[in-house]
Each structure stands twice: as structure tokens, then as C-alpha cells.
Design brief:
By secondary structure, this protein is mainly beta. The chain contains eight helices and 40 strands. It folds into three domains: 382 residues, Rossmann fold (3-Layer(aba) Sandwich); 84 residues, Immunoglobulin-like (Sandwich); 156 residues, Galactose-binding domain-like (Jelly Rolls, Sandwich), CATH 2.60.120. This is Peptidase S53 domain-containing protein.
């Protein structure tokens, strides 16, 4: 049984040199005229999803274009239209998340950069990995998604040519595979992640939001290409939803309006049916939930961008769709600087709306609330707050709330009647200070407004406690846990399992504290010992640390504590040198250490007896540490922490 290692523009001819033209085998007279808004047709390059939980890319390609003749907007046009600096992006890492493989991605990108006189890619500047962060095996090649990939990579190079680029290719277009790739892009160090894909909304999307909840990372998502109607993940409250415009150059400069080609083709927008309104969406949207879009950029294929594609294409093409605008905006974020570590960068434009080009004309359909589908002064659904006018609107700073309130779950608690209790609750996000309210406490305990629970329990029994923190702006967050009170003396809960969610079968970490993406399902490529979920530490093949911990209260009178878990270790390392390690601790005491040298063909049970824990608070922790080379996966499942008198 092997565990896969995971994460482990109209061309301005004058701007192109004669040497660049010659390198393509073209004389200057062979270049196409500016793209017309009335010529040729348009085709979608990705298949329409045939099953639920499948995403589609948003790339649209104009038909009838000459593959040997570049046309469409190029880097200098985008820089001019959006007042962006040329040759920017140094030091930034931008990730592109797409499905399937484009086998010609690197060579096509090099050809695009050469044609437009951009600096050649340096060693290590471009990386292509699978959804688990490995260079092989790569997914099956797909000619449609290859077009999407070419578009995304070319737009990053056009706007931020000196940025590092990571292409993360999901195994398929399923939401599970793409979400795995999303988490991997962040794990690989990208501070800017572009997603040019999506699908319809569903009631389960609020659970899927965890894959986009990455503070300190600017995540952009295409708003959709089918006109008015909300799409996910653009309506996730953790991303920047990017709409689309028609961009034209006039004698007096650049002009934009809502992109809307016909009744089935145009930028998406709408009011989410499921995701709540984020604290940073401070403008009036007419929607009590999350509304899209936030900002926009060129997306109309009739005024589209130049793309070079040879897998599924024959060379030069003109592309559009919000697949173009999403990587453009991700790259503008990269030009603006590194996001604040606890920030949700989708908030930045709302603090700097005056630094955007407000798009005030056009519509993408009909809707019950006019601003959801019709452009106007200020925010509107199709174009959000507007398009870039320099980088200031995408930079950290201003008065942006840092995010939602999150309460740290203290884990299930256990005491005996008469114990002296002192438990301090904690929260993060939102705007401190927090005011606390706690319900369901055992008799004899009370909580202060600062979140400290004190007192002595008077009655045996088990309670469900809910702790709620309210920040200075009125935003709330909650956590629930159980509290068992026994009579002590070796009775009560001695002999019971003290850990909450011991097999991770809730599908999420709580009440464990865990690194992002640690709790995984069988669909992610690993396998649970029992059930469908497990904890997956490391497996990256690059420097990385994953953590998993939970604190329990051992009742007084329970003098024997047994601790066990099942571990499955799979590795690419060879030999007996411990390159990658898993450290298991009880409080500060190291219980055991494992490494790649302990690789096994399946799950192995590990059992320990802890002494001196009666009446004590014990933190059980797993820490996986991986070096910079090759990957080791540590899978943990069915953890038990039991007591006896």
C-alpha cells in the first residue's frame, strides 16, 4: 500500500524590437492589425462540467486568427492601460492553479516572453508541479486546459515579468483535486495565487472555504464568463473576485465598459446564496451576503490578449474571459508588495477605491437589484470597484479590518467536583479587544468578559460549552467543547476517551489545532486507518513543518494514562539517515521520534503509558519536519488518550 507524496492586448508593434520579430520568423509587415470588436467568433477551450463537483476553466479563444501572426494586447498595452510599472515583480512568487497538464507550458512561455522582449526566464524562475508539489508524475495532458494554462502564464509574465512562477497542476478538474492544488500553492510559498476556474454555487461551499482561507496570501478568482449569476469560488469570502471589461484605446487614451458579448457570454457577477458578507466588503452592495466582483480587468475576447499556445493550439491566439483578468489582478497584487501576514488582501481595494478606474457603463444581464448587473458610479457587480490605476489599491495599509474573529478551541475539559478551575480563552482576527460570553458551563463555574473561566464545579455531569468572542466592530466567532465533571476518587470518566475528534471523522481539525491542510480525506490520495479521514503531516519534498495538537484535562484520581495512535510512514528517501522527522510530545516531554528510516507498508499502532498526569492538563502534539529534498509522509489516525484509576 503506497501513499502518494503530496504538496510533499492589441500588440503595439512599435514596442517590439526588430530582433524579437526576426526571432519569430516574421517581418514587421506581417504583424496583424489591432483586434476588432466585430471580427471572428469565440470558443470555450474547456469542456462543460459533466458531473457535480467539477470545475470549468474560464478561458475563451477567438477563432479564425492566424497562428503565425501575433494579435491582441501585449505587455506594454496592459502597462499603459492600467498605469503599471514595466519589468516589475522581482522577489514575488505567483502561483497558477489549473487542472491537467500542459506539456509545452515552459517552451510556450519562453516563446511569448521572447516575442515581447521580456527578459528570458532565469534558472528556477518557473516551476511546474503536480497537486502534491512534486515534479512527477504530472497529470494527464489536456488540450483545453493547456490553453487556460498558456493564458494564465502569459498574463503573469506580461504584468510581472520578473516574478517567480509556480504552475500547480491538479490531477483533474474535480473540486477536490483543485482544492488540494490550491492548498499546495500556498504551502510552496506563493503569496499570490490565481484561479481561472469555477462552477455553480452549492450549500457545501462554506466548508470548501477552508481551502481559500489563507491570511497573508492574495488569492484571485475569475467571476465567470456566462453573464449575470454568482459562481464559486469567486463568492468565497476569502478571495478577490475578478470581473471583466471591454478595453479599447481611443485618441484620448483607454476606455472600459462591462464585458457583455451576448446573452450567454459576459462577465459574471451576483449575490451569494451561501457565503456571508466579509467584514471588509464595506460598500453598499444591496446584498446581505458576499457579492461579486471586487475589481476587474480586460476580459472581452473581442478586445483580448495575445497568447502563445502549441498544445491544443498552433501558435498565436487571442484569448479573453475572466481567465485573463484573474491572473492580471494577481500580478498587480505582486507589483504592489507583500500582503500583511494576517491580512485578507481582498480587503485592500476597499480601503483604496480612489486609486482605481471606476467603470460606469455597460451591463451583463438583467437582475432584481440593478447594481448586481449594471455598472455605475462606485461599486457594481460586473466590475466591482473598478480596474487598476497603478498599484496603490492593491497594497497593504489603510484601515482594513484584518479578518474574521476565530476562537481557539481549548479542547474537551474534565474535572472532578471541588477542583479549582482556571481556563483562559483566546481569539484572533477581527479588531481587538474582544468581549466574551460563555454558555453551558457546569454549575459552579463562571466566565468573565475577558474570557477567563474560574470557579469550582459542584455537580457531576457533562456539559456542552459554547464560547463566543465579539470584537470591537461587532463581529463574532465561536467554539464549542464538552466539559465533564466527575465525583473523583477513581470513578467518573476514568477509562474514557478524553480526546475530541480522535479519528478526524468530522472532516475538519477542531478541537485539534493543526496546520492548514493537515486533516485529509481518502479522496486526497492517502488512506485512513479507519473511516474516511486522517491527519497528513508533510509529504512536500521541500522545507516544511506541519503541526497537530490537542490539550486535555486528566481528572484527579485517574492515575494511569494510556496514549496511542496509528502511524503510516511513506518516503522517497533511501537509507537509514533520518532526514525527515515526526516528533511526538506530551507537554514538553518527547514521547517518541520517527523518521523516513521508519517507513512502513501500512499503519502501525504505537502505544505509551504516561505517568504523573493525574489532575493535570496535557498537550499531545505531533510535529512533522521535512528538509529541502525528497518527501516523507506521516499519516496519523485513530488517536486515543484514555485514563484508569
Amino acid at each position: 500500500m503506497g501513499v502518494p507524496l503530496r504538496r510533499a492586448m492589441v500588440v503595439s508593434v512599435a514596442a517590439l524590437s526588430a530582433a524579437a520579430l526576426t526571432s519569430l520568423g516574421l517581418a514587421q509587415s506581417a504583424w496583424a492589425a489591432p483586434a476588432s470588436s466585430t471580427t471572428t467568433g469565440v470558443e470555450r477551450v474547456c469542456a462543460t462540467p459533466a458531473a457535480p463537483h467539477t470545475m470549468s476553466c474560464m478561458a475563451l479563444r477567438r477563432t479564425g486568427m492566424h497562428p503565425d501572426v501575433p494579435s491582441g494586447y501585449g505587455p506594454s498595452d496592459l502597462d499603459s492601460a492600467y498605469s503599471l510599472p514595466a519589468n516589475g515583480g522581482a522577489g514575488a512568487t505567483i502561483a497558477i492553479v489549473d487542472a491537467y497538464d500542459d506539456p509545452n507550458a515552459a517552451s510556450d512561455l519562453a516563446a511569448y516572453r521572447s516575442a515581447f522582449g521580456l527578459p528570458a526566464l532565469t534558472s528556477g524562475q518557473f516551476r511546474k508541479v503536480n497537486q502534491n508539489g512534486q515534479t512527477s508524475p504530472l497529470p494527464t495532458a489536456d488540450s483545453g486546459w493547456a490553453g487556460e494554462i498558456s493564458l494564465d502564464l502569459d498574463m503573469v509574465s506580461a504584468v510581472a515579468p520578473k516574478a517567480n512562477i509556480i504552475l500547480v497542476e491538479a490531477d483533474s478538474a474535480s473540486d477536490t483535486a483543485l482544492y488540494t492544488a490550491e492548498d499546495e500553492a500556498v504551502a510552496l510559498g506563493a503569496k499570490y495565487v490565481s484561479n481561472s476556474w469555477g462552477g455553480g454555487e452549492s450549500s457545501g461551499q462554506t466548508s470548501d472555504d477552508q481551502h481559500f482561507n489563507h491570511p497573508g496570501v492574495a488569492i484571485t478568482v475569475s467571476a465567470g464568463d456566462s453573464g449575470y449569476g454568482a459562481e464559486y469560488p469567486a463568492t468565497s469570502k476569502y478571495v478577490t473576485a475578478v470581473g471583466g471589461t471591454s478595453l479599447t484605446q481611443t485618441s484620448s487614451g483607454w476606455s472600459e465598459k462591462v464585458w457583455n458579448t451576448n446573452s450567454t457570454e459576459g462577465t459574471g457577477s451576483g449575490c451569494s446564496a451561501y457565503d456571508g458578507k466579509p467584514s471588509w466588503q464595506t460598500v453598499s452592495t444591496g446584498c446581505s451576503n458576499r457579492a461579486e466582483a471586487d475589481v476587474s480587468a480586460v476580459a472581452d475576447p473581442a478586445t483580448g490578449v495575445a497568447v502563445y499556445q502549441t498544445y491544443g493550439g498552433s501558435g498565436w491566439a487571442v484569448y479573453g474571459g475572466t481567465s485573463a483578468s484573474a491572473p492580471i489582478i494577481a500580478s498587480v497584487y505582486a507589483l504592489a508588495g507583500t500582503p500583511g501576514a494576517s491580512d485578507y488582501p481582498a480587503s485592500y481595494p476597499y480601503s483604496h477605491a480612489s486609486n482605481l478606474n471606476d467603470v460606469t457603463s455597460g451591463s451583463n444581464g438583467s437582475c432584481s437589484t440593478a447594481k448586481w448587473c449594471t455598472a455605475g458610479t462606485g461599486w457594481d457587480g460586473p466590475t466591482g470597484l473598478g480596474t487598476p490605476n497603478g498599484t496603490a489599491a492593491f497594497a497593504a495599509g489603510g484601515t482594513t479590518p484584518p479578518g474574521d474573529v476565530s476562537v481557539a478551541n481549548p479542547g474537551n475539559q474534565s474535572n472532578k467536583v471541588g477542583d479549582s478551575v482556571s481556563l483562559q480563552l483566546s481569539a484572533s482576527g477581527g479588531t481587538a479587544p474582544y468581549t466574551w460570553s460563555v454558555t453551558g458551563l457546569p454549575a459552579g463555574l463562571s466566565a468573565s468578559s475577558s474570557g477567563k473561566i474560574t470557579g469550582s464545579p459542584t455537580t457531576a455531569g457533562t456539559s456542552t460549552v459554547k464560547a463566543t468572542a465579539t470584537d470591537a466592530a461587532g463581529k463574532t466567532g465561536s467554539a464549542s467543547f464538552s466539559w465533564a465533571i466527575t465525583t473523583g476518587g477513581g470513578g467518573g470518566t476514568c477509562g474514557s476517551q478524553l480526546l475530541g475528534n480522535p479519528g478526524f471523522e468530522t472532516g475538519s481539525a477542531s478541537p485539534w489545532s493543526a496546520s492548514s491542510g493537515v486533516v485529509s480525506s481518502n479522496a486526497d490520495g492517502g488512506v485512513a486507518h479507519t473511516g474516511s479521514y486522517y491527519a497528513w503531516l508533510d509529504g512536500y519534498g521541500s522545507s516544511h513543518t506541519d503541526t497537530l495538537s490537542q490539550t486535555v484535562q486528566v481528572p484527579s484520581g485517574c492515575n494511569t494514562v494510556s496514549f496511542s495512535f496509528y502511524v503510516y510512514i511513506d518516503t522517497q528517501e533511501s537509507g537509514s539517515t533520518p532526514y525527515d522527522t515526526l516528533t511526538v510530545k506530551a507537554n514538553s516531554t518527547t514521547v517518541a521520534t520517527y523518521s523516513n528510516a521508519n517507513a512502513s507498508g501500512g499503519y502501525v499502532k504505537k502505544s505509551f503509558t504516561l505517568t504523573g498526569a493525574s489532575g493535570q492538563s496535557v498537550k499531545i502534539s505531533f510535529t512533522g519536519t521535512e528538509d529541502s529534498y525528497l518527501a516523507t509522509s506521516f499519516l496519523i489516525d485513530d488517536v486515543a488518550f484514555t485514563t484508569a484509576s
